[in-house]
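User: tokens in, sequence out, please.
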């Protein structure tokens, strides 16, 4: 949950499929939490 997720964030954000539960488990709760905070 630091700068390491920064480069990965835009790529995942661009994908609408990220909202799906399957992708959510793949990305992990940590990365999904970042999307929730936005």
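Assistant: Sequence out:
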């Amino acid at each position: 949950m630091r700068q390491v997720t920064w480069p990965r964030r835009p790529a995942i954000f661009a994908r609408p499929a990220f909202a799906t539960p399957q992708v959510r488990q793949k990305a992990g709760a940590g990365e999904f939490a970042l999307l929730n905070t936005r």
